[in-house]
Write a sequence for this structure.
DNA sequence: TATTGTTATACTCTATAACTATA
DNA sequence: TATAGTTATAGAGTATAACAATA
C-alpha cells in the first residue's frame, strides 16, 4: 500500500476559488512532508528565558557544552554542522547573557575552551522542560512505539549516525 | 524500548578534543532529529533548470498551479502556508522565467489568476524527476513500508491533514 | 603552510506594516 | 470598511572570503 498514489484531495478548485485544493504529487513526497513538518513544528518555537528568547540552536549549544565542557569553537561548530563563522553570533549572545564563558586554551593559544556557566546550567534545565513539553505536543496521538519508529527513521534518513 | 534513554554516544570528550562527542538528551528528541533531517536533506538541494536554480518552494508553486489553474495569489499563499507578501518574490521570478503568467481576474479586478505556462509544464516535468530522484536518495535503505510509515507519521505530526 | 577564531559581507527566506486599487 | 496584490523594510540564519595570531 503506497503512501498515496491516488490523490489525497477531493475536488477541483472552483472558478470562484472556494473549492478544495488539488495537491498533485505533493502529499506523496516524504521530503515535502519533512519540510512542512519541520517548518510548522519550529515556527513560533522560541523559548523565553531571562527576558529574551533562545532558539533550538542555542539549546543545542548549551546541551553540548554541558556534556562536553571545554569544547573548542571549531569542534562545537562541526558537531552542530555549521561553519565556524556561523556559530560566532550565537556564542557571543550566550556569553553576553552570561550562560557561556570562553577561556583561551593553555595548550593551544589559538583555541578557546567553551564552558557553560552555573547560570547557563540553570537556564538549560529550564530549556529542557520547554523542549520536553514541545516533544509531547508534536508527538500527541502517537504511541511510544510510533515515536520511536519516527525517531529511528528520521535518524537514518539524515545519516546522523551513518 | 525507548528511542534512546541510554546515550547513543560512547566516550567522553578528551581534554585534547579528540574524543567522541557526548550528545546528552539530543538524540532522543524527535523535534531535533526532524530539524537535522530537514536541514541535511534540503541543504544543497537546488534544481538547475534553464540556467538558474529553482528551490523546493518553486517546485511546490508550479505543482499547485498545474493542478489548480487560475489560483489566486492569496489562495496560493495560504495553501503553501506563507504570508501573501512572502510569495511575491518567488512569483515574480517564475514570471520572469516565463514559467508562470498572471492575468487580472474578470470578476474581481483586484485579483490575479495565476497559470503555469507550457514552458512551465515542461520545467515542472523536469523538476518532478529531480524530486523523485531526491526521494530515492533520502529513503535509501528503507523498505516501502517504512517510507509509508515515515510519511504518515510526519503528516500526522505536522497536522497537515488535521 | 595550516589552523583557530573572528570580522565583513552577502544571500535566502520570511514577516510586518503601509500603500493602491478595487470591492 | 475590507480585501488583493504590492512595496519597503527588517530580522534570523547561514555562507564565503579574508584577516591576525598561533601552530
Amino acid at each position: 500500500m503506497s503512501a498515496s498514489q491516488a490523490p489525497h484531495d477531493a475536488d477541483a478548485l472552483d472558478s470562484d476559488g472556494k473549492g478544495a485544493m488539488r495537491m498533485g504529487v505533493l502529499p506523496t513526497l516524504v521530503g515535502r512532508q519533512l519540510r512542512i513538518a519541520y517548518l510548522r513544528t519550529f515556527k513560533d518555537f522560541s523559548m523565553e528565558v531571562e527576558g529574551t528568547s533562545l532558539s533550538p540552536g542555542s539549546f543545542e549549544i548549551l546541551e553540548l557544552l554541558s556534556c562536553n565542557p571545554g569544547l573548542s569553537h571549531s569542534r562545537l561548530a562541526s558537531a552542530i554542522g555549521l561553519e565556524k563563522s556561523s556559530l560566532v553570533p550565537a556564542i557571543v549572545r550566550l556569553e553576553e547573557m552570561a550562560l557561556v564563558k570562553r577561556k583561551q586554551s593553555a595548550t593551544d593559544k589559538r583555541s578557546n575552551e567553551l564552558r557553560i556557566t552555573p547560570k547557563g546550567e540553570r537556564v538549560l534545565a529550564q530549556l529542557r522542560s520547554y523542549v520536553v513539553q514541545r516533544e509531547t505536543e508534536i508527538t500527541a496521538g502517537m504511541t511510544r512505539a510510533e515515536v520511536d519508529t519516527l525517531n529511528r527513521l528520521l535518524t537514518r534518513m539524515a545519516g546522523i549516525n551513518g
